[in-house]
Design brief:
The chain has 137 residues and is an alpha+beta fold. It has two domains: 63 residues, no CATH class; 56 residues. The chain contains two helices and four strands. A four-stranded antiparallel β-sheet has the order 1-2-3-4, with helices on one face.
Length: 137
């Protein structure tokens, strides 16, 4: 059982609850002691109760937070790329399979969502181009 990591992070919305894993006890069972809660959004680390976190605890927590933030950012990109796939599949469906009543049910919602997305994308692209040209800080 000594192959277990020294910390366990129970994922929750916006962060995790952090446990120290102990297998070196007389009963040879796995003990998990809650040591902190963390918030990914604001970087807050709250020790459990009056506990003082060790430098090792803090280093493990900071490493986990960095890895988790990177993973969530990658998942965001994956989700967007999946949305592009869905848009292409939707286009194919509209062109080849959709019945008039089905199109009637989805057309307005799709057009509004696509218009909103296009407006935001064009504005953000223009902002980036202005920044690149030195026109804005």
């Amino acid at each position: 059982m000594s192959d277990l990591p020294p910390y366990y992070f129970r994922i929750r919305e916006n962060g995790a609850t952090v446990f120290r894993v102990d297998t070196e006890n007389r009963q040879r069972r796995i003990d998990m002691e809650q040591i902190a809660t963390i918030n990914i959004r604001n970087g807050e680390v709250k020790p459990q109760g009056d506990r003082a976190l060790t430098p090792e605890d803090l280093a493990a927590i900071r490493d986990w937070m960095a890895a988790r933030t990177a993973l969530l950012a990658q998942r965001d990109i994956d989700d967007i790329l999946r949305a592009v796939d869905y848009m292409n599949l939707t286009t194919h469906w509209v062109q080849t399979k959709a019945a008039d009543d089905q199109l009637e049910a989805v057309t307005d919602s799709l057009l509004l969502a696509m218009h909103d997305l296009r407006t935001v994308l064009v504005r953000k692209k223009a902002d980036r181009m202005l920044k690149a040209d030195g026109g804005e800080d």
